[in-house]
What we know:
It is a single chain. With about 600 residues, the chain is α/β, with parallel strands linked by helices. The chain is flat, with a radius of gyration of 28 Å. The longest helix has 19 residues, at about 560-580. The strands form seven sheets. Strands 4-3-13-12-9-10 form a six-stranded antiparallel sheet, with no helix packed on it. It has a five-stranded mixed sheet with strand order 6-5-7-8-11, with no helix packed on it. It holds the Pfam family Sigma54_activat.
Amino acid sequence: MSTEKCEGERYETSTERLTDSADGGGPPAQRGITIVFHYRDGVEVAQLAPGQARVVGRGEPSDLCLPDRTLSREHARFSLNEGRILVEDLGSTNGTWIAGTRIERAEVALGGEVMLGTVVARIVVLGTATLPLEGEESFRARLDEEIKRARHFGRGFAILAVRAPAPDAARAPLGAWVTGFMAKLRTGIDRASLYSPDTALVLLPETGAEAASQMAHAVSSAPSPGTAAHIVGVAVYPEAATTVEKLIELARGAAAGASAARPVMAAPMEAWTESGVTRLHGGMIAGAAMRDLLDAAKQVASSRASVILRGETGTGKELLARFIHEHSLWRDKPRVCVNCAALPPSLLESTLFGHERGAFTGASQQRGGLFAAANDGTLFLDEVGELSLAAQAALLRVLETGRFSRVGSTHEVEVSVRVISATHRDLDAMVKQGAFREDLYYRLSTIELEVPPLRDRRDEMDSLARLFLTEANAANGRSVRGLSDEAMAVLCAYRWPGNVRELRNVIERAVVLARCELIQPHDLPPRVRAAPADDGAQAAARRASEPEPLADESALGRPVKAHVRKAEAQVIKEALDKVGWNRTEAARRLGMPIRTLTRRIKELGLTPPK
C-alpha cells in the first residue's frame, strides 16, 4: 500500500500493478484493461490499451461521453503506462473520488473503484479467459445491490441458472465444467457463482428479457462439436419476481423444466405481479396519525380477514397494503396488485380467473389469472369501487366459495387468497344508491382502515420532503441541499388535494428548477404558493418558519427537525457501519452524492467506531 497526498489530506490507495500475477496473462506491455462505468441511465464499457489515455466526460471533446449530469464536459483522464493505472481529475465540478477522498491524480488498483460525480468506474482486466467464480455470500450481496439499483432506476436484470450435462458434472473436478460457458459472459459486468456441483447461477446486470434470452442461448450452446449443450433457466426482474430468493427459485425451476431438445427455458413473466407504486425506500414515513394506523395494520396482518383501505387518492393505500402483506405470515408468498378501474369489462373474468386456450378469439394459450397467481398470498384490488355490478357478482362468488372456473372450462379451481381492497369512493353511499353490492361490501370490509390525508399528517411534511428531495437529486443528477424555511412554510400551508403523490411531484419539480442549494418559494408551483391556508395550516407554517421549535413539540413527542436529524443520523451511521465506513459504498447504498454524504457526516458529528 502507498500513501498519496491530495488537497491537504492523506489517504491510502493500493498500488497493485498490471503484472503477470494478476490474472496469469502476458507481460504488462501487451495487456490492457477494461473500465466499466455505471451511471444513471445504464452501463458503458471502455477499453484502455498500454500507453493509451482516455478522457471521460459529459460531452465533446471527451473520448468517452456519458449522458450523466453530474459529470463535467471533460471530467477525468484514465491512462495505462508501464503497468500503472492512473486517473487524473481535469478540474471537474463534482470531483473525482477514491475511497471517499477527492483526488487530483492517483493510481488505481485492479478491481478498484473511482467515483466521477455519481458515476462509478470499476477497473477490470481485459481479455481474461473466464470470469472468476464468486462465493455464495458475495454473489448474494451483489444480487441485493442489483435489486436496489434496478428499483431505484426503474430498470431490469436477469438471473440464469446453468446446469451442466450430467456426464460433464460427474467427470470434471468441482466447478470445472463452468469454463465451457463463462468465456461467453461479459467480463467485468456479469457475475457467476456455483450453486451446486452441477448448477451455476449467473447475474446479468442491466439486461432485459430479450437480451437475457439471447445470452442464455449463447451460454447453452455446446462448447465444442460433439459435446452436450448446457441447460439454462432464465428469470427476469421485475417481470418474473422481485426478490432474490424468488428469482433464484424461478431460474432453477425453469432450468429443471428445460431439456436437451429445448435447452433454454424462461420463467413466466407477468407484468401485473409487481406494483408500480412509488417505494419509500425501506418503509412508510410515520407521524402520529400514521403510527397509530401502522400499529393497527400490524395487528391485523397475521389474520386472513379481508381488509378494505379507505382514503383519498395519493395517500399511500397501496403502500399500506404492501406493509400489511410484508408483516403477515405469508410475506414470502405472492403479492399481486390489480387496478380495478383499468380492467375492461370484456376482459374482467379472464383477467381475474384466467382462461383456457381457445376460450375466445385471441386466447392462444392458457392463462391462470390473478386469483391463481395470488394463491396462498395476497391479492390487492385497488379502486374496487370502480367495478361494474357484473364484475362485483363474479368477485363475490370466489370470495364466498374460494373456488372459480377459468373462462372456457367447467373445472373448478380452489384457491386460498387474502384479499386487501382499496377505494377513494364512499362505498356506503354507493350501496344506498344501488351502485355497489351490499353483500360484497360486507365481504370485503371485515376490517376497515382509514388512511388520513396529508393535510392531517403535517408532522410528516419535513421527513417526506427530505426523502423526496434525496430521490429527486439522484434521479435528476442534482445536488440540492434542502428547503428554505420559507419554502417549508409554504408546503405546510397548502392543503395537498393530491396528497403524498402530489408532494413528491412538487418536490421533484422544485429540485429540477432550483437555482441554488436550497429550494425557495419561487421554485414551487403557483398553486402551492397562492393557496389560502386554514388555521391549522397557518400554525404549521409558522412552526416551520422557526429555526428550531423548542417549546412547542409536534405530535411525534419532540421537535420535528430534531426527530428528522436523529433519524437521518441513524440511517447514515447504519449504512456506514455495514460497509466498514467505506464512504463510496455507503453513498451508493444511500443514493446520494459522496460529497453530500461527507458533509452530512461532519454536520451530524458522526465518527467511526474505535
